[in-house]
Design goal:
Blueprint lengths: L5 H17 L5 H35 L7
Helix pairs in contact: 1-2
Length: 69
Amino acid sequence: MEQQTFREAYGVLQRHADTLREQQEPNIDDLLKIVTESVAAYKVCKTRIDAVEEALKAALEGAGVEPSA
């Protein structure tokens, strides 16, 4: 899978959630693809969120502000 931006990965998660929510019956043939793509997209989003949290924490500590949990 090519490198995705947060927005692209989040879009994948939204589309798959909508697809699963709208199904009257589960489509087992597509489920593995949906799960595989969703896990990959989640990892991209989690990595980006963790990086932003770390950057904010470093910025706040550098400014003498104690970050809250």
